[in-house]
Amino acid sequence: MESRYDIDGRMGSKTVTMLKTLLPYDPPRWAQGLKNIPKTMIPLSPRGDDKVRMINPWNLPGFPKQFEVFIRREDATGAAISGNKVRKLEFLLADAIEKGCKHVITCGGIQSNHCRITALAARELGMTPHLVLRADIESEADVGCEGNVLLNRMCGAHMYMVPKLSPYLTELKPRMEKLAESIREKTGEESYLIPVGGSNTLGVFGFLTVFEEMLPCIPWITDIVVACGSGGTVGGLCIANHLTGSKVKVHAVIVCDDAKYFHNHVNETLSELGLTDVQSEEILDIIEGYKGRGYGLSTEEELEFIMDIGASTGVILDPTYTGKAVRGLVSELQNNPHRFRGNQILFIHTGGTFGLFDGRINHLLKQRNTPNSSQIHIWTDMDDFINPS
Ligand SMILES: *Cc1c(COP(=O)(O)O)cnc(C)c1O
Q1: Using 50, 70 and 90 to split pLDDT, how confident is the model at 53?
Q2: What's this model's pTM, rounded to 2 decimal places?
Q3: Residue 302 counted as domain residue
């Protein structure tokens, strides 16, 4: 397999790159001593537009006045291929291309953002996506077309429904391996397996890159807060924070599992990167208590919160990760302010908006009646008086 498969075309005097290019990866200076550094990456998100990468003040309601809250939009890195998983896939899919794989297999919940982004990006790069999805679904007809599933269908992803409570190591991983084997038998083609959430050592480099991009803003940030589901995102951030000697405190609001699980995950990553002088417990604050009814499930209060934030700031949070994380952030700022290193707080929006399109919030939106909620007018005659109260 050639490592470059771009075509340069001519438009006037400008050279335009027509296809995606596998780029050699050069880690930031502070990461050059690590083990297992990837050799290539493939840009999936729009680059060169610093506006979407900037840190902006966020007029989030309800936090104590001594704090200032900022937001970075990792959700706004593209249209359908958007969110934090993009950053991991830039390394993972480069590896898949280098290995000459024709298929990509990954797994997650039925509304997994990671699976949706992987499927779309795999198609964009000419590979066939296979998704092993956790859901209690008995027949094909029950799968529906909602939220992320609509986009999975739009790009022709193969979807395999498995019992909702399947654990990763004993159920999902062996099933992905079995699938790869049967694809190989049937087609002679190789598959690339991506673990749940894309959280392995390669994926972590995506968030070392994000930290490097944020470095100019880091001196005036005291705390970074991010949602955590498989640990790769926060792992990358706290490791970069440690390596750069930045004095930021990194906090993860977890939406599943527990603190011990994520510290173990980050400790494994540290050892795979050859960092033996530091422990996750010293570089990462894990915030528990905001899972609500459990992974992927919402309470009415959580959905009300998401609607409030949307209507007061124009930022749309997702029900599974960022909605819970920001709720946790506001509550900790109110009730536990000393948990933070200072008062300049950065929240990284990790995406997931399509999860809102699965119908769960519709009935609440329709009956909502707050000062800033939608007003619907049936305006038949132009001359009628409208009272846009
Ligand atoms: C996956 C995901 C997260 C969590 O990231 P991890 O690296 O898996 O911990 C946060 N927000 C959104 C929207 C996600 O899809």
Answers
A1: low
A2: 0.93
A3: yes
